[in-house]
Structure of NUDIX domain-containing protein:
Amino acid sequence: MNDYIKTMREMVGNKTLLKIGCGAIIVDPQGRILLQERTGQDIWGIPGGIMEIGETFEETVKREVSEETNLEITEFSLFGIYSGENGFAVYPNGDRVYSIQIIFLSKKYEGSLKPCAESKQLRFFSKEGLPNNMNPHQSPFINDWLNNANTPIVK
């Protein structure tokens, strides 16, 4: 948990916090999407995480992708900005959040996949072979990618 969220939790308990997350739809040369199965969860989603105080959106997505996958995204563009009802979540410990997600698309990256402590596994999936147990909070942007939506998307 980043220091800001930890500090805010100490003040407000498990009441709803507003947070900004950044993630990346990373597509390999075969047109497959990179998904991460997070440790302690049986769901798949894209790499990403919470913005730190003072970071830019680009710094956040680059840091999160590097931390979670060992890849460095070298070129990326805005895929979409997501808000609305799907941004509400309650964690198993009772903490409530409302997230705004800034999602980028990258087809250019360097490095080799290496899971971190947050990742049970990392894999590229074809559009036809996506897992059934997708992160419900990320399915809107994964579905937009699947459907070749016009970008950038603002929802």
User: Anything to note?
Assistant: The radius of gyration is 15 Å.
